[in-house]
Design goal:
InterPro entries: Bulb-type_lectin_dom (IPR001480), Bulb-type_lectin_dom_sf (IPR036426)
Organism: Selaginella moellendorffii
Pfam family, one: B_lectin
CATH class of the largest domain: Mainly Beta
Largest sheet: 6 strands, mixed
Strand content: 35-45%
Distance between the termini: 55 Å
Number of helices: 1
Keywords: Signal
Structural class: mainly beta
CATH topology of the largest domain: Agglutinin, subunit A
Number of strands: 32
Number of domains: 2
Protein name: Bulb-type lectin domain-containing protein
Radius of gyration: 24 Å
CATH architecture of the largest domain: Orthogonal Prism
Shape: globular
Strand order of the largest sheet: 18-19-20-21-31-32
Helix content: under 10%
CATH superfamily of the largest domain: Bulb-type lectin domain
Length: about 400
């Protein structure tokens, strides 16, 4: 196995507290990518734990890493899918050499090289690329004194007074963890593909009355394809109608359930929320879990098995009867999805010719460049209806719906 890793210079006092393990970081502390490289979960690639020497004297004692109390979570440099693109990530199952899975990423939109470093300069924590440009920094106006990692998977940055100034739970990437709250307006998003952790085209957003999964192509209107709702909104607009004085909150539990309920705010004028809570069970038994929005738009619940491996316990497509065509990009941008067979490509529809292809490999049809140019001076809106699914609290049923949206040519 390749050995590279994280060399930490001048990291110091370590303390275990009720909320987790806290590491004090002095000025000019630096961690570079050197040390042992561990294999990660699935296609996530390999990772290198950030090391934390026990004291300033460079003693030859056992190497300490930036880990939570029980070693479940660790801060690491992730070599995503072996691409050589590195990301500063929190890894779940960090001390298990086969199950380390990234559950939060700092520099999602800006991968760095293996010459990069994590450093504290002028009180600021920064991830610097090899050319010393900043790839990520949590705050420009708060002095960071220490880093805390707890057993829920939350990383907390503290100031010199011990006050929390930043938390990873407030900035989800593509994963929701048990105990993590998603409140109205917050969202998480898929990776773009298996080669990059950049934000992809699928999002899960906590609206005022529902969690909405949507296909969100660049510079285009969102196209919802699944809703879990408090009550039964029939459109995306009704899912966004606020309950006066209340905020919708979603939580994923260690028991494998998704709970959605209203929390009363200080401005509440009514004694009860607008709808009853929603509880959907995705698994059973208390365990380490992650709810991940994959790059194809599927929402998957993974459970850490006692053998040390991750197992799939729920897929969003179970609600669809495992019909692949219910995911928006099942056959890529130019593919035709067939529920009973393979994808087909729009090779030349003018002559009714199609070619069979694997999902996502279809190229733009050769007639696309010859499409007529329209006079847009007399544009009229064209209404489309997008077939979607709504999960309601009514007996746990999945209710089909038509979501309307308008496109102007």
């Amino acid at each position: 196995m390749k050995t590279v890793g994280v060399l930490a210079v001048l990291l110091v006092s370590l303390a275990s507290v009720a909320s987790g393990r806290v590491y004090t970081i002095p000025e000019n502390w630096t961690a570079t990518i050197q040390g042992r490289e561990l294999p990660g979960f699935g296609s996530s690639g390999s990772y290198i734990l950030v090391s934390a020497p026990r004291d300033l004297n460079g003693s030859s004692g056992e190497q300490e890493f930036l880990l939570s109390d029980n070693g479940t979570f660790g801060l690491a440099f992730l070599n995503f899918n072996g691409t050589g693109n590195y990301y500063l990530s929190l890894v779940m199952g960090a001390t298990n050499a086969t199950a380390g899975a990234p559950i939060w990423t700092a520099n999602r939109s800006k991968a760095v090289s293996n010459e990069s470093r994590l450093t504290k300069t002028a009180g600021q924590l920064k991830l610097l690329n090899g050319d010393l440009t900043t790839a990520w920094s949590p705050s420009d106006d708060q002095t960071i004194a220490s880093i805390g990692l707890d057993e829920t998977g939350n990383m907390v940055l503290y100031n010199s007074s011990g006050g929390a100034v930043w938390e990873s739970f407030d900035h989800p990437t593509d994963v929701l963890l048990p105990g993590q709250r998603l409140v109205t307006g917050q969202r998480f998003a898929s990776n773009l593909n298996s080669s990059t952790m950049s934000e992809g085209v699928f999002t899960a957003t906590m609206e005022a009355r529902a969690i909405v999964l949507a296909f969100s192509p660049p510079s285009q209107e969102q196209q919802p394809y699944f809703l879990w709702s408090l009550g039964l909104p029939s459109t995306i607009d009704s899912a966004r109608v606020r309950c006066p004085g209340y905020v919708a909150v979603l939580q994923y539990t260690t028991g494998g359930a998704v709970n959605m309920a209203y929390e009363r705010s200080s401005a509440a004028t009514t004694s009860s929320p607008c709808n009853a809570p929603l509880n959907v069970s995705l698994g059973s038994g208390n365990s380490k879990r992650q709810l991940r929005l994959e790059s194809d738009g599927n929402l998957i619940s993974y459970k850490l098995h006692e053998t040390g491996n991750w197992e799939t316990e729920f897929l969003l497509t179970q609600f669809f009867g495992h019909r692949a065509c219910d995911l928006p990009l099942s056959c890529g941008s130019y593919g035709l999805c067939n529920q009973t067979g393979p994808c087909e490509c729009m090779d030349n529809r003018a002559t009714n010719i199609t070619t069979v292809a694997e999902s996502g490999t279809c190229e733009s049809p050769n007639w696309a460049s010859r499409l007529a140019t329209c006079d847009t001076s007399t544009r009229a809106p064209i209404e489309f209806r997008l077939r979607s699914r709504i999960a309601s609290k009514r007996a746990g049923r999945i209710v089909p719906a038509l979501l309307s949206f308008t496109m102007v040519p």
